[in-house]
Amino acid sequence: MGLNAYFTFQVVGWHGTGPVSYRLALTAVFIEGFIFVFLSLIGMRQWLVKIIPASMKVAASVGIGLFLTLIGLSNTAGIGAINGGVNTPLDLGGCPDAFRDKTGVCTSHKLRNPTLWIGIFCGGVLTAWLMMYRVRSAIIIGIAVVSVLSWPRTTPFTYFPYTEEGASRFDFFKKVVTFHPIQNVLNAQDWNVARAGSQFALALFTFLYVDILDCTGTLYSMARFSGVVDDSTGDFPRSTLAYCTDAMSISIGSLFGSSPVTAFVESAAGIAEGGKTGLTAVTTGVCFLISIFFAPIFASIPPWATGCTLVLVGCMMTRSIVDINWRYVGDAIPAFITLVFMPFSFSIAYGLIAGIMTYAALNGLVYIMKLISFGRVVPPDEDLREYWTYKPKSGSLPWFVRLAQGDRRFWEESPDNHPAISERTKGSAHSDKDFESTDMPIEMDRYRQPDGGKQGESRV
Q1: Which Gene Ontology cellular component terms are annotated (predicted)?
Q2: Where along the chain do its domains lie?
Q3: Which of 228, 238, 342, 384 could staple 327 via S-S, CB 3.0–4.6 A?
């Protein structure tokens, strides 16, 4: 939610006290969406994903998992096990509201809030137990059980306590079905951008660079989590259509008065339930449509009912951490910076920025030292580093670059071969000469045929 927070508190400001008005900010979001469509059509977003080092792309998926875990454990959107501290960035929470100071820090009675434990046991342990038995609706069952248990007003973990806020929630909950029409949709934007001047351009530029890293990284990580990413090309099927859909959603959302609408990390919950096609998104959309009319019920699902779900999804997303190249420092440290900076900065985009800058600094210094020493001073374990180049193979270049290079079938993207082979081999990839030109070990097994002792063909 970092981009939404930037839209609200930095661009628009508290009750419109920021440098850009609400309607002008929506105009910036609308323009940003169409710029994204253009970047997606020319293949720039796909190309950006491909040039990011492999370990950092894996780390992005792990970092999003840790990000979800932090949200699930937080006090505002989770079970409340941790919260901000006074002397430390994070502190143990889980205390009743009566023992919090004005900043939300627990002064005493930590881990004694009944909502924490009902969320852990009925939302976490129950869901995990059902997942062990491959129950597809385990996440929904866990959320539903905690929600129903939290609705009675007489329980110590009720979502409707006998307070002014609790009474307001309960009055809304009793409506069950309600509908609020959307008004003034056509007048949501203000195209007098000259009035905001440089502040409008700054907001548009910030939306662009944060969104292009945040949304692209999230969408790629979700595709990787669902297992559809092709490791040879670094892309996933129909990625252009997915990126264009993501971009159009931004512009359409601005027409309804919304901050950037993009792929969110909560998509991992649907993937964890087994969803790997567009039907998952369609089902989610239908559920959101239904929730418009049953908003009192869905708005009454307490945060401690969904907190452990985010933790469990985060656990499943971090399992790919073993794919990071921990053997070479130049790959391991940038990946580690990426995965830890995402949750601690509360931003996917800034986590990627931190990782990219670290990767460029470390490996850039190694490259400079290698040039100065004419290749004599290199790290002793450099041969363990991952293959990377800022010049993707011709099949991985955007279509307009392939067209400029004279490729007559520029619209077809050929899969990349193994980097070591594709750089050194020419002609048929199955000839002995080609295999001998690589560093790959070859085992020649000559065997005799049963027809008189003629020597058979070689096997690689």
Answers
A1: plasma membrane
A2: 21-349
A3: 384
